Task: structure prediction
Amino acid sequence: MQTPSGISFKRHRFPPAIVAHAVWLYVRFNLSLREVEEMLMERGIDVYYETIRRWTIKFGPQIARNLRRRQGLPGDVWHLDEVAVKVAGRSFWLWRAVDQHGVVLDEILQAKRDKVAAKRLLVALLKRTGVVLKRIVTDKLRSYGAAKREVAPGLGHWSHKGLDNRADNSHLPFRTRERTMQGYRSPGALLRFVSLHSAIRNSFSVPARRRNALCIRYHRMEIIVAWELATGID
Result:
């Protein structure tokens, strides 16, 4: 049966709520697949850890898309940065864009750290968001300036080593998760996971304006409902 979220749980032995909960535990928290398996077993649910991995691969992309559809428009100041990653022994660059509120807008994986890669990130973002952008903030990598001059020559650009802290900080949860996962099997596997990981972090992170205890509780209640809608469970 296909749920209103666009996700079909047909021919799965476990109920949709258990499948969605396993995916949530694995992506939301810094847990390994075996730790999620153990947590479910403690509740009387006997699921092999490789099954949890397959659930994440199968359902993760659609869940991420559903969560992103519920986001508001991004801010008009984008912080761009890139971080080196290893995938099956090969070196890549994970390029990331974050708005001034700390919301991760997009990630792309590129083999090089050059103008072509920076241009691809900018073009994809401008097409997808439809935002009237005020400026971008980057480190001193010259590829950003070269890409901006071709894509949006009139756009403001602040370039300084200490100015891209929001983008730098957005890498920290990814690095923590990367150590737990002990690497990725393929570039596609990396992109699938970081897309879902960022979509969940965007949703569950408490905005600065809602930092008192009552607002934090309400925010968490709201996002649990949003998660259930995104996964199609009741």
Observations:
- Strands lie at 77-87, 90-99, 104-110, 135-138, 156-159.
- The chain has a mean pLDDT of 88.
- The first strand starts at residue 77 and ends at 87.
